[in-house]
Structure formats: C-alpha cells, structure tokens
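User: Fold this, then the next.

Assistant: Folding the first:
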Amino acid sequence: MNKYLKFFTVFLLFVCLFCVFFVSAPNFFTFAKETSIGANGACVMELQTGRVLFEQNADEKMPMASTTKILTCLLVVEQCDNLDAWVTVPDAAVGIEGSSIYLRKGDRLTYRDLLYGLMFRSGNDAAVALSILIAGSVESFIDMCNSFCAEHQLLNTHYVTPNGLDDAEHYTTARDLAKLSCIALKNDVFAEIVKTEMYTMAGQRQATKEKVLKNKNKFLQTYEGADGVKIGYTQQAGKCFVGSATRNGMHLVGAFLNVDNMFDVCSCVFDSIFKTYAMTEVLPPYYHFGSMPIVHGEKDYVHIVSKKPFMYPLSLVEKNLLIVKITLDRNLKAPIEKNQVVGKVEIYLGNNLIFSSKIYTMERVESNSYFATLQKVLQNF
C-alpha cells in the first residue's frame, strides 16, 4: 500500500509541476518585460517592428542629460547637405559649461568634425555650434526639435537645450527616447557615427592639437553586436544611456534613465531578450494564398497574394499563439484587374493585432458575360 501511495504522490507532484510550468510559461518567456532593474525608467524596443520587449516605468517624464544629443545629431544630419563643408565656430559656442571639445574663437571645422565631437565626447559646445549653424540660433533649433517630437508622436518629450544641460522643462520618457533612437538609427549616416569607435578630425583648431577622438561609449567594446548609441550624465538626471545591439537579425534599442552601472544593466537586459526572443518570418514576401472564386469570368477563379513580408520578434511560446485572419470580398465578379485589392490578412498575437496587409489578385480575368462577349465581337469586326 505504501508503495502505491508513494507512486501516486510522485505522480501528483509531477502533474502539479507540469501545470505550474504550463500556466507560467508565457510569463517565463517574458521575463525581460517584468524583471526590476536599477533604473528609474527603461524601455527596450526591436528597431524594425517597434515592439517593446522590456519596460520599467517607461512613461514617467525625466531629465535625459546628453542623450539629448541623439536628436541634435539626427536633425543636423537630415538638414545638412554637405557634412564635409567647412564652417567657422560661432562665438556663442565658445566656453559652454560641462563636457566639451574645447572650441575656441576662429576654429575652422567641418560639420562632420562637430558631429563626432558631439557624439563621441558629448561636446556641449559642439551642440550649440551645430544648432546655430543649422537653424541660425539655439532657440530656432529647439523649435525644430520640438516640432520633430510632435510630428513623430513623442508626446512626453520637450526640449529646451540642444545638449541636455539641466532644465526643469527639458525632459523625456524612456519609451519616447527608445522610439526616437529607433528613428535615428534608421538613418545610415547617424548609424555610422554612433557605431564608430575612433575618428580623426579634419579641422583647424586653436586650443589643442588633439585630432583623434575616441568614443566614450564603452558598450561598443564590451558587448557582442553593440552598434551604438549615447551615454549621458548630469547631477539632476544621473547616468543615462541608450544602447543598441544587433544579433541574428534582431536589432535591440534600449533607453535607460537614471541608471547605475548602465553598461552592465543594458547587457543583462539585452542578454535576457536575445535568449528569449528571435526574429521570426511570420509571413514571407508575395505569399500565395491560393485562389478565390469569381463569377462571369473566363475562369472560375483568380489567384491571390499578399505582397508585404512580416518579421516579428517572438518567443517559442508566442509562436503557438499567433492567429491569422483572412477576409475576402464576397461575390467577386469579372472583369478582374491584376493587383486588384480583394481582401486583407490580419495577424494577431493573442488578442493584439500585430500586422495587417491587403490581398491582391495575381492576374487579370476577363468577363464572359453576354455583353462583354458582344463587345469583343464588335471590336474585332
């Protein structure tokens, strides 16, 4: 009797453990979303899809220190036609407090020099110089910054300075900062700047002979696949960091505000996400859905296809939660044009719509109705 009792007890324990794991599996695979880290605010997104894979206090407004310069750099890259054009440093950019590339009156540099000084050495003076050169004044440049935020729905972000020096009205959120950084990294020039480790300046400078700049972002040297972005610090903001890394086709961008051990924290969160998620081809390009019936056509059917591919970061558990919903037009009548929209495909992860695309016809189908046949006869007569 004891023998059977032991067997039943072990079996019951096994069933309980299995049930616990089955119920908690989705939470296990979203560990990175819920784990508390040493940051006042954090948000990690996959760059191409914008999917949030980790967040912690992501919508609280906070100071952002020199991560401010991400937008400063992006706007200059977008507005400047020739980054290798020579410019003279504006007087107002000389002697700016905080981190600096020590610009002096009369210095001649290129826009590219100033951008690398801005992002590598976090030059507050470089930020002011670029603002004036691009917009005519710092105030006008700040208007450009805030217009950009409004246009891209960064609604919890407001700029007062181009460099991130403390101001009560200069703030962002981890979510907005991650989203902004994703936008910036899609610009090839910006992406090239922030992943570079060393840069040799071309400019003529009064204060120093230093021409070789080293990127202060140690994440580039310490993390596999790292390719950006920017560090920052002020007394009010604390340490701030936006990190970026790409592995196996998945590009993570993480914003961390007021974070201790910023490189270690970013590495730990990224490691967890890379282990849990993988970029998955949910829908290949030009996927053939088969055919759909038509009436009054030379053929009884027409082939249909979706054009847009869809890649998405998914965990193993989530792959089994995908739902594909196809909606097609009813009573489709000839004539049918090639590339005619006849429906849509929607993909859900659980209850969340994550993708939608139109479905098109692959060929033209003529009508076989009496009037269409008569018209052909008359045309050929």
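Now the next one, as you asked:
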Amino acid sequence: MLDTHQLRVFLAAAETLNFSQAAKRLHMSQPSVTQHIHNLETHFGMQLFVRAGRKISLTEAGVTLLPMARDLVLSAIRADEMMDTLKQEIHGQLWIACTTTPGKYILPTIMADFLKRYPKVEAFISVSNRNDAMRLLNEGKAQIMVSSVFDYHPDIEFHKFISESLVLIVPKNHPWTRRESIKLDELRKANMILREKSAGSYMVLRDGLAQKGFDISDLHKILTLGNSEAIAFAVQEGIGVGFVSMLVAQRIVKEQVAIVKIDDLELSQDIYIGQHRRLPSTSAQVAFWKMAIEPQSEALLKILSYLS
C-alpha cells in the first residue's frame, strides 16, 4: 500500500531536484529522504530518479507519478482537514502573506479576535511586497493573502475586505491647517513625500489625480519612502506633506499632524483578501476566511471605527 508520507518526500524531491533541499523543506535528514525514495522505488519496482553525482532528475516513471502523487497527497490533506472540522476543533498553523498597510494596521486587530476564538492556532504574518505575497500564496506556503492591490489569477479567489480613505496630512503648524480645504492646484507648490511607484497607495493617488486632469509627475517630490508609517513620521518632522491611509493617520500620528481636505478630490483604496482555489484549505484557514468576511464581525467593526 502506498505511504502518503513517502509521496510527500517524493514531491519535495521532485520539486527541488535536490535531496538536501527536500530534506530541509521537510525538516528531515538527507539519509532519511534517500531511504524513503528508495522504499518508494522498491514498491514500484522501478527508478523514479536518475542520480548523477549531486544532481538528480526524474525518470519517465517519476514524471508519470508526479501529478498522481500530488492528487493523492492533496486528497489525504483534505481528508485530515475534513475530520478535524467534524471534530469542531480548529487548530494547526495559519500563514498569512500581506502587504505593508494591511500587515501593520489591519491584520493585528483581526488576528487578536481570531486567536481569542481559536487559541490552538499558531499564526504567522509575512509582510512583503505584493509580488512576494502572491508567490507565497501560489506556492502553497501561505494560506491567505491580504493586499491593497491584486493581479487577476484564475486560481486565486479574491474578496473585497475593506475600503479605506487616502488622506493628505501636513505638519500641525502648516498654513493649510487654518483653512477648511485647499484647491487641487495648490499641491504643485508643496514639498511632497510619496511612496514608491509599485505601492498601492501611490497607484490610488496617481489614478485619482489623473481623473482630475492632474499628472502625478507635476508634484514637487522631495522624498520617496517605502511605507506609509515613514511618510507620517516625515510629515510630523516637517519635511513635507504626504498622502497616507486614514488608519495610519488615526492610529500613528493623530495628535502630531493634521488632515487637510482637497476640493473635489476623494481617494480610497480597497483591501482584498485572497486564497488559492485549487490547494486544500486547512481548518484554520476556513475559520479565518469566514471571520474576515463577516460584515458585522467585532474586529471589522473596530477597524471601521478608526476610519470614521
């Protein structure tokens, strides 16, 4: 009878084409990986790998086995998760890959509520750029992705999680704080602190300005920073003015900066939550997804209170 653990070892070796790397991925010793592969080859009565020194490659039999092994392992995982669900016990690990703003200002609130409900879950949050977060999700290393921007992928299910305003903040002593609002053209005169071009908030600002016939390159940019928190602190220090999410403005520098309204310009960015359609869902993943998209969840209502 086939051993699903041996099939997992085979998959790791087939995907890395390196027994040492497969051992590291599986937290096993290399001799143990080699022995499992040998036992599997004995079971089938044929070689699955061609060994040439430290290099290995799949034989025709190995190539044939690969998709079937994936299906069998996924079926075994689904069976385990279904049995866990039937026991009504949510446990295991949950890995979420996310971009900067959700990772720092949204997920901690959601995660606090989630871990209170499911204390047996061990959670990991990886904050990175959008491309790395998508890669982790596609590779099955992360079960959930949260991002302010997403690229369409047929295997990824995205759900609009929340919308947040993008606001202009200025130092407390700035002349604009004495007015109810400013004209859009006045932005041309300001020393502007911006995010990098690949950031979701930069794209929202660029597109919002373009809709008003304003090219973002017309702004007098004096500084580019890698996250909204850094922009907020730079504004607080009087370096210039900048656009940040309302969450950053309200939770990080609320008393140190001022929000300035701009006539006929309202900016908002959507935050999305995503999961892979074809990879098996863990019980912790199912529970988190359900809680995150509940419109009246306690954690979501708490976040919305910061945005009002």
